[in-house]
Input
Amino acid sequence: DTEVTQTPKHLVMGMTNKKSLKCEQHMGHRAMYWYKQKAKKPPELMFVYSYEKLSINESVPSRFSPECPNSSLLNLHLHALQPEDSALYLCASSLSLGSAYEQYFGPGTRLTVT
Amino acid sequence: AQTVTQSQPEMSVQEAETVTLSCTYDTSESDYYLFWYKQPPSRQMILVIRQEAYKQQNATENRFSVNFQKAAKSFSLKISDSQLGDAAMYFCAYRRGINYGQNFVFGPGTRLSVLP
Output
């Protein structure tokens, strides 16, 4: 199983809502990532977890709150978002943080903030 | 800081023909990895091919091969016998080889169209 799954596929939320994105993998990977991708742009790294601990936070606003409850699951909690936060949110995982390891990407959640 | 440049925002190729996507990067490091990722429309990003900088031999994966010129800091992707399913956005990416947690530096991408 070389799959990273993400739910929901699409999400529309108002600026006062609270919602969560979910990412799951069962490949035994110990590093998991959140990326934000705007249309026709490359992914931008947001957060990195290694062995369920936050390793990297790329100066992401606090309205985005990541959580890694266990080694297979990664959540991204959203609160008080702005319209400019509308984007494709990608989750990825890799065996570990080592540079040689391939990152496996999920299909993404397309978020629209109204 | 490392940068990755893809000078061709869009390219097209006739089915069954060969196309080359260019990528150049800037780094002062000697140990690093280079990747080509493919992102089809509305589908997930997948790894196409990977090259370790310490390897002189160019990586090959079936119809995909790279031309890695370390001195010139060039890493082009050649797709042979192009198929309709090759239509996608292609991202070149760089990752430092030392220490853990070295993040990808992605290029801006090249959108490839395959014409029947």
Remarks:
- The mean pLDDT of chain B is 92.
- Chain B touches chain A at residues 32-33, 35, 37, 43-47, 50, 52, 89, 91, 95-98, 100-104, 106-109, 111 (CB under 8 Å).
